[in-house]
Amino acid sequence: MGFSTKNMYFVLIVCCMELVTLSKSNRFGNANFYRQGIGQFAGRRRNSNMAYRRNVHVYRNNSFGISRGLYNINATIPRLYTDRKKIQKERFYRSQQAAVDYLKSRNGTIITEVFTDFFSCFTGERDIFIPRLRRKPFIVIESMYRHERRKVMRMVCNSIEGARCISPPHYNMRDILKKLAYMKLYYIHKAAKFLGLYAFAHLVKSFIVTGHPVVSGSYFTDLIANKINRIYYPKVPPSYQVKYLQPDDLMKPDVIFYLDYMTQRNMIRRKLPRFLQIYLRFKKIGPLKVIRRDISDRNGTVDAIRKILLRHVDKDFNIVSPIT
Asked: Which residues form the signal peptide (predicted)?
């Protein structure tokens, strides 16, 4: 049986039609795959902002079968996971022993390094007694404007004879805290940082008993206020919660100055700033003095601090009356 030229052309036309049909079905199939979140890596996305969301999209479809709400990245994380992470973030220690117990419950040589560096901070007598009056003061200056806070802290320190200008953590614990942060051991880092406040308080006492006033740029309130600000946003926790209480076994400063600076953005306010709301909720922290000045008026800020201090100290800068 012969195969004519007309039959050959007919076969070629049929084959071409089949190829066109297959190519169209593949193209539409890939489109369906994109809609289902399966073929997200088969082609190039035009929107560069979607690059980090691709795995989220796959995770949502494979785990929950959800193809909508791609931009709600928090919805991709199981609720149990977020609750567990929040509980760990909300770990507020109520005493030195509580932080020690938590660290002891962890495993690894890094915990031994934490305790080694912590105990190395206590040179000489471990328990140093300081009287309530007739001694040098312990002054804390804090603010959400960290650069201006450091400047004012040093200016106040330089205006007081023999004052020591220091900030936590204790110098013996700085290396281990950097190491913990580098290793991303965040929960151990937070416990060690809280424990470092006790080492810092011991250093403050050692300066006071030797006749040196201490001016610090950070303390318990700064650590906890930043922690609350990160975890609870945008609402501020109510004042009755125990996280606002300073531990009884941690030394209290004689006065805390919070610098509530005025800038062009907050010159006129409809409500108190978030950080100031947190500070006003603290309890058992010692006297809190809020100083509201223009952010460019450093000399005026220092004068306001000295004016408050001079009411309660003698000519040798010893405390003669409690600051209230």
From this structure: 1-23
**Cα–Cα distance for residue pair 210/208, rounded to 1 Å:** 5
Tell which residue, 216, 223, 213, has the closest CA to residue 192: 223
Contact 304, 141 (CB under 8 A): no
SS (H, E, C) 195-245: HHHHHHHHHHHHHHHCCCCEEECCCHHHHHHHHHHHHCCCCCCCCCCHHHE
Q: Which residue has the tokens 């330089």?
A: 158
87-310 fold: Rossmann fold (3.40.50)
Query: Where do the domains of the chain lie?
Result: 5-40+49-80, 87-310
Q: Please state the separation of Cα 317 from the chain's center in Å.
A: 35
- Tell me the pairing of strands 164-166 and 138-142: unpaired
pTM: 0.72
Neighbouring CB atoms inside 10 A of 115's CB total: 15
Can you give the pLDDT of all 324 residues of the chain as single tens digits?
A: 455 665 666 667 766 676 655 555 554 444 444 444 444 444 444 444 433 333 333 333 333 333 333 333 344 434 433 444 554 556 789 999 999 999 999 988 999 999 999 999 998 788 899 999 999 999 999 999 999 999 999 999 999 999 999 999 999 999 999 999 999 998 999 999 999 999 999 999 999 999 999 999 999 999 999 999 988 878 899 999 999 999 999 999 999 999 998 877 766 777 888 999 999 999 999 999 999 999 889 999 999 999 999 999 999 999 999 998
Please name which of 292, 295, 282, 269 lies closest in space to residue 238, comparing C-alpha atoms: 282
